[in-house]
Amino acid sequence: MPYGSDWYKLDNVAKIMPSTATGADTRVFRLVCELVEDVDHDVLQDALDDTIEDFPLLRCCLRRGLFWYYLEQTQIRPLVTQDTLPALSVLYIPGRHNLLFRVTYNKNRINVEMYHVIADGTGGYSFIKHLIMNYLSKKYSLDLHDYAPDMTSVSERASDAYSRYYGSGEKAPALSPLSWIKKMIPANACKIKGIPDPDLREHLLEGRVSLSEFLDVCHQKNLTLGIMSTSLFIIAVLKQLGTREMKKPIVISVPVNLRQFFPSETARNFFGTIFVRYDPKKYDGTLESVTGEVAKAFKSELTKERVANAMNSYAILEHAWGIKILPLSFKNLAVHFFNSNIKSGVTASVSNVGKIELPEEASKYVKFFSSFMAGPTVFMCISTFGDEMSFGIVDAYTRHDVSLEFFRSLTAMGMHVTLSSNDSYMDEH
């Protein structure tokens, strides 16, 4: 929530973002809404002007304090622009007074890109849905005032849910943050190999399938959407591993929306992370040899106690006295060290952003939603709207064998996959 009249304290997740965004890992995520008709620039700008009034946290710049970064409110007007920058481009530049999100469009696609400091995927979708509703109501004279997001107060959207629920699980020890990290995160995971993009740019691959077709396969195998998606992604990784690389576990980082465990309508960060660990030596070439292990991991990790512990782990920098009293420049070094330990224990990330719903009178103007997240390795986001299921995969390599193998597995199951990308190599293959 606001501290004073013109600034906000960062939430516990946001505190680590400025110190860990390096190279292609800009800590920026992109949410996309594809409409049935091309975007009207002036109407979209008018809709953005209205929407930003309900999301004051987005009208902020990131500033350096003595001990922490903080968000300072500004009167900068966010402007809609054509989508010309590379996807997931840097939003925070130290010393520059600028907003931490952008709204762009290209033909019939509206893009919202956000620096992870100000929101998570759920919060970002709250904003883009609000924006789309305002746009459609203005463009087509629709009466959408009773739409559910309007019921959430401005103060609730800007609230810090981590502070509200801190202590719900086992608190992180104050004097040994590294041991806590090692407890929460497996070490020495196998890595996805690839030639880094020479320009440190992220490559986006968007694959869409019928949600009903995907769920039919899940039901046949008695699996959830999350377990099936994660298992198929693990197999895609397995098929790229050499014999020597099979000695280390595959560890998939899975962000979990904490709002399903702790009631909150915040648009800020409010997620925990669980880790699905798989031993490559258990793979016998069948899907079942992976799904059984993944299902066990989901069952043991997706409990209120476990996600509460994950939530509290993000508060470690704020509550560990050995770090808390350090000036910001020294904190940055500590965060960088902890982040290196975290990255060593993760192979890739799979995030189910969830189901996006709009009222019937608005849905007919929308084709689908999709989402993408920059990260230190391959990151897959899953979004659903109506019968459209979108997989947004991001990496910073020159080839994308894991991503393409994942989609081959879907077609092998009889699903029709529609692919698009910002990358010429994938367009040709």
Structural notes for this entry:
With 429 residues, the chain is of the alpha+beta class. It has 2 domains: 7-141, Chloramphenicol Acetyltransferase; 178-428, 2-Layer Sandwich (Chloramphenicol Acetyltransferase), CATH 3.30.559. It is built from 16 helices and 15 strands. The protein has helices at 17-20, 41-51, 121-140, 154-157, 161-165, 177-184, 211-220, 225-238, 288-301, 304-313, 316-319, 321-324, 328-344, 360-363, 401-412, 424-428, and strands at 7-9, 28-35, 60-64, 69-73, 80-82, 101-106, 109-115, 203-210, 250-257, 271-278, 348-355, 366-373, 379-385, 388-395, 418-421. It has a 7-stranded mixed sheet. The chain has a 5-stranded mixed sheet with strand order 5-6-7-2-12, with helices on one face. It has a 3-stranded antiparallel sheet with strand order 1-4-3, with no helix packed on it. It is globular, with a radius of gyration of 21 Å. The model is unreliable at 424-429 (pLDDT under 50).
Name of the level-1 CATH class of the largest domain: Alpha Beta
Uncertain segments are 424-429
CATH fold node name of the largest domain: Chloramphenicol Acetyltransferase
- State the helix count: 16
